[in-house]
Design goal:
seven-stranded mixed sheet, two-stranded antiparallel sheet, Rossmann fold, 10 helices, alpha/beta
Amino acid sequence: MKNGDKRHLITFSSPKSPIAEAYRTLRTNIHFSGLDSPYRTIMVTSAGPDEGKSTTLANLAVAMAQAGSRVLLVDCDLRKPVQHKIFELPNQKGLTNVLVEQLKVNEAIQATRINNLSLLSSGPIPPNPSELLGSQRMNELVKFLADEFDIILFDSPPAVAVTDAALLSAQVDGVILVLRAGVARIEMAKQVKELIEKANGKIIGTVLYGINFSGEDYHYYYYYGEKKGRKVNA
């Protein structure tokens, strides 16, 4: 793994660290919040750019795979995809090839270095991301993948800037909103909530990213709160 990517996948590079433990707590909270109706398709988004959503999603995917679940991470950020960079995999073909060229999905899915974790990268950036993510073809793909994997995690663009996240939110079981400490504004968070709910999406929790504590191991802190009000510190 490249030195610059070590922090991206800390659940893999430093599984005994407090940060990795925080991701496992997030994993556990998601599991218990969906006991009656498990969340098997989950989208992660943010209000604005550079809030840590892709890093959060990648580490959550690793944590879930480490627990034995068959996990697929789908990079639906068709504007600025990064998951293939985090996992150091090629991106010549991926989601857009499946949606536009009708490439067989099993030909686009790649194994990662983590057991039980696969990646469907974005593929070539299209001129019409919103139309693709809101298409019937995408809806059918989500349903197909749900039969093939235990958990599917979707990385989406920031929700306020474009409609991609709202369109995708209606096709998944739940949405996790990542907010960066000192960057995210309450008004934008409320706006995301309204956009997701208007699209018939369901926000199941939030993650507060980027709180600095003393000591390198506490560079990030994660907070997960259930929509119904019960909140658990990660």
